[in-house]
Specification:
By secondary structure, the chain is α/β, with parallel strands linked by helices. The chain has helices at 19-33, 37-58, 73-88, 120-126, 145-152; strands at residues 17-18, 66-67, 96-98, 101-104, 107-110, 113-116, 133-135, 157-158, 167-174, 185-191, 195-198. The chain has five helices and eleven strands; from the N terminus they run βααβαββββαβαββββ. It starts with 16 loop residues before the first strand and ends in a 6-residue tail after the last strand.
Length: 204
């Protein structure tokens, strides 16, 4: 099985940015690249969801939210990169379904301290969505707030099993972090009826 990987080498020393600053960078990038209106709307919705989750958790106005872990340029690359892929594969008009989202277990340590995994931002993002989550014995964060924000704007629902379909193509994307229990791989299956995102093993 061959998997596509993208490795970033960042010379970045900023550990805090305003959410609106990151949003502007994302939208400027989307315009510069020439993404479709649907892709731009998707990218904007993703970053708005990410900012709104922090706003609600900390009781801050949208414009006052500052990111720490999500302040890196890889947040922009995750969101804009997904928008590019969706545009290139013409998937914005397709139905997308994901498997239950694996969030991992244990604790997670970040700028606000240490808390049980999944962190509050992830729960806030996925609250009231049609997507289900499940934990596991892996004591690590398997879904990040950025990943959750992207997923809620891709998939309208999640299913425990693949629906009936004829398989057209399969793609694999490999993550960098290694786990003893499973391969860190995102699997996408395209069928003649539905698109399936197997999100179980992806870490943003």
């Amino acid at each position: 099985m061959e998997s596509t990987s993208l490795f970033l080498e960042l010379d970045e020393h900023v550990h805090e940015r305003k959410g609106t600053e990151i949003k502007k960078a994302i939208m400027d990038s989307a315009n510069e690249i020439g993404l479709s209106n649907k892709a731009k709307s998707f990218a904007e919705s993703c970053i708005d969801t990410l900012i709104s989750s922090e706003s609600k958790i900390h009781g801050l106005p949208f414009e006052s939210v500052h990111f720490h872990e999500a302040s890196s340029i890889d947040t922009l690359i995750d969101i804009v990169g997904t928008a590019i892929a969706m545009d290139d594969l013409a998937l914005f008009d397709e139905e997308i379904i994901c498997m239950p989202i694996a969030v991992g277990g244990g604790t997670v340590t970040f700028s606000h301290g240490t808390m049980s995994n999944p962190a509050s931002a992830i729960l806030q993002i996925l609250k009231n969505s049609k997507l289900s989550i499940h934990g596991c014995q892996v004591k690590d964060e398997l879904t990040t707030p950025t990943g959750a924000s992207i997923l809620v704007h891709l998939a309208k629902t999640s299913m425990d099993f693949y629906p009936s379909m004829e398989i057209i193509s399969v793609g694999y994307g490999a993550g960098k972090k290694e786990f003893d229990e499973f391969s860190n791989v995102l699997k996408i299956v395209k069928g003649n009826q539905k698109i399936i995102f197997n999100w179980i093993q992806l870490k943003f």
